[in-house]
């Protein structure tokens, strides 16, 4: 009887006290909405799992200060720049700064130009943030079980090291970062894996392979240069003993990436890499979203509806006029299709008297994509929108504008539910209209998009589950040094077998050529 009572109390005890919650530090500087959203999602996922998450947010770009990224996590530490004055007006017009991205060419040399601005921002941010002694002291009081940072900046990893945290996790809001892959011992073969800034799929022409190879060198080189400069800052402010970033990247126990194995181009990864692409698409929440009456009425007007949105970075209202006008003429060719265009300006004279076009400054994108009345989507192909499209199963025209969008488009298009349109073709309304016709009226695209969504929503492990389980595992057993590939210790000759090829060459030279020479010598002596 006693033992039963005892067992019973054990069961009760186990039931009422779940595993002790972990102290988790997530470092997420503010500089770009999609990065903050991804890191915020990871933090919220862990908060939801019952952990004590601290979301550490240095403000790198003051104009985005409101885009923190978390919804559920309460412990948010926003760290402003030392000279920050909330009352000062910001006369930086980001729309004008970003306008040139519409027409930028996507050549490796342009990546370097684009990067200069970013490098300057991250280096300054690292200096400002690591010199804030008060924040460092405050954080030193808590013993963190595990810490997570995005390796788009290395400052966070240096900071964790200075705090004495060695159980770390990297999380990339893109499918991968070339500069990180290179330094973690993970292979990347540019002959068939499109790099971050590529504008083609895995079937590359010789010119594209060259571009891919050159782009990898430029982008990885840029990132490494930035890491070096950030390291100089964190060592200046936190001590020269803080580890080199080259040791901190491989010290991380897990690499979460915003890639989904069923969507992305197949590529070899090391066992530390865990794709959590799709974590930003919260299907439960999306299903509970309701469209406003106004939008519902718009959707009911015609049998077919298409959404147009170029995201929030480069605005539709700053698009070259000639492109805007040819999209408009394409729209006019479809009186039976209603178009909803996310457009940020009130200056709409240019589109007067177009009955089948509605402008909205903000669109409930996921609720629209989930609505059966929406027939298709014209998008810039940001990774967030690409994943939403994939999970919600709508056919789409993807017009990559800059950065990783050029890779995301072909990545989704290869599943058959989307078509990529080169942005330079936006000046041709016939080309646009032809694709609109396919996406709205040819059912095969809709079917393939629906098939992919069905597959994704039936995946064996949900991205949230992967984040929670791996993070808890690292907190308990990390750092997982046994997962650090030995290839990092090898030099180029060893890694590529060049040493062996050279030895083989020498060997065959001796074995074959020496007897030949001897025989020839003897032959000449005799005859
Ligand atoms: C949660 O984390 C904060 C640091 O942000 C810390 O001050 C607090 O003590 C932690 N709570 C628990 C219960 O450990
Ligand atoms: C629009 O729909 C009507 C009625 O269904 C049809 O007769 C007409 O041909 C359609 N027009 C176009 C341009 O598709």
Automatic annotation (TrEMBL):
<dbReference type="GO" id="GO:0016020">
    <property type="term" value="C:membrane"/>
</dbReference>
<keyword id="KW-0472">Membrane</keyword>
<dbReference type="InterPro" id="IPR050271">
    <property type="entry name" value="UDP-glycosyltransferase"/>
</dbReference>
<comment type="similarity">
    <text>Belongs to the UDP-glycosyltransferase family.</text>
</comment>
<keyword id="KW-0732">Signal</keyword>
<keyword id="KW-1133">Transmembrane helix</keyword>
<feature type="signal peptide">
    <location>
        <begin position="1"/>
        <end position="18"/>
    </location>
</feature>
<keyword id="KW-0812">Transmembrane</keyword>
<keyword id="KW-0808">Transferase</keyword>
<dbReference type="InterPro" id="IPR002213">
    <property type="entry name" value="UDP_glucos_trans"/>
</dbReference>
<feature type="transmembrane region" description="Helical">
    <location>
        <begin position="500"/>
        <end position="519"/>
    </location>
</feature>
<keyword id="KW-0328">Glycosyltransferase</keyword>
<dbReference type="GO" id="GO:0015020">
    <property type="term" value="F:glucuronosyltransferase activity"/>
</dbReference>
<dbReference type="Pfam" id="PF00201">
    <property type="entry name" value="UDPGT"/>
</dbReference>
<dbReference type="InterPro" id="IPR035595">
    <property type="entry name" value="UDP_glycos_trans_CS"/>
</dbReference>
<protein>
    <recommendedName>
        <fullName>UDP-glucuronosyltransferase</fullName>
        <ecNumber>2.4.1.17</ecNumber>
    </recommendedName>
</protein>
């Amino acid at each position: 009887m006693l033992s039963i009572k005892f067992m019973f109390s054990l069961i009760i005890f186990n039931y009422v006290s779940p595993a002790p919650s972990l102290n988790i530090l997530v470092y997420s500087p503010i500089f770009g909405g999609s990065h903050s959203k991804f890191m915020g999602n990871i933090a919220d996922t862990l908060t939801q799992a019952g952990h004590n998450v601290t979301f550490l947010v240095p403000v790198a770009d003051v104009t985005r200060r409101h885009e923190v990224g978390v919804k559920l996590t309460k412990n948010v530490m926003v760290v402003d720049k030392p000279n920050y004055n909330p009352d000062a007006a910001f006369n930086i017009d980001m729309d004008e700064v970003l306008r040139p991205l519409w027409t930028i060419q996507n050549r490796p040399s342009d990546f370097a130009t684009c990067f200069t601005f970013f490098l300057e921002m991250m280096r300054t941010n690292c200096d400002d943030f690591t010199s804030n002694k008060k924040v460092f002291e405050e954080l030193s009081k808590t013993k963190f079980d595990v810490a997570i940072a995005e390796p788009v900046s290395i400052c966070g990893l240096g900071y964790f090291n200075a705090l004495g945290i060695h159980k770390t996790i990297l999380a990339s809001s893109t499918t991968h970062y070339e500069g990180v892959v290179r330094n973690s011992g993970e292979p990347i073969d540019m002959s068939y894996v499109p790099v971050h800034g590529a504008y083609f799929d895995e079937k590359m022409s010789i010119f594209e392979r060259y571009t891919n190879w050159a782009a990898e060198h430029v982008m990885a080189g840029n990132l490494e240069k930035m890491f070096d400069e950030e390291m100089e800052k964190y060592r200046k402010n936190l001590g020269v003993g803080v580890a080199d970033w080259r040791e901190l990247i491989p010290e991380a126990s897990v690499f979460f990436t915003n890639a989904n194995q069923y969507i992305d181009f197949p590529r070899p990864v090391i066992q530390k890499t865990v794709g959590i692409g799709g974590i930003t698409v919260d299907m439960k929440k999306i299903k509970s979203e309701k469209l406003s009456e106004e939008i519902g009425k718009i959707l009911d007007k015609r049998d077919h509806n298409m959404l147009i949105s170029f995201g929030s970075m480069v605005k539709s209202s700053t698009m070259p006029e000639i492109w805007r006008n040819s999209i408009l003429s394409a729209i006019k060719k479809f009186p039976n299709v209603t178009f909803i265009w996310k457009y940020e300006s009130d200056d709409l004279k240019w589109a007067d008297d177009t009955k089948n076009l509605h402008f909205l400054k903000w669109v409930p994108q996921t609720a629209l994509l989930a609505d059966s009345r929406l027939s298709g989507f014209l998008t810039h192909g940001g990774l967030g929108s690409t994943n939403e499209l994939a999970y919600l199963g709508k056919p789409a025209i993807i017009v990559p504008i800059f950065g990783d969008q050029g890779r995301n488009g072909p990545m989704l298009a290869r599943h058959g539910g989307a078509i990529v349109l080169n942005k330079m073709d936006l000046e041709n309304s016939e080309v646009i209209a032809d694709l609109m016709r396919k996406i709205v009226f040819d059912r095969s695209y809709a079917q393939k998009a629906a098939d992919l969504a069905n597959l994704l929503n039936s995946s064996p492990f949900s991205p949230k589950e992967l984040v929670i389980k791996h993070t808890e595992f690292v907190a308990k057993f990390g750092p997982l040094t046994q997962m650090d590939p030995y290839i990092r210790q090898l030099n180029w000759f060893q890694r590529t077998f060049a040493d062996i090829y050279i030895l083989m060459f020498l060997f065959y030279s001796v074995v074959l050529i020496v007897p030949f020479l001897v025989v020839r010598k003897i032959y000449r002596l005799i005859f």
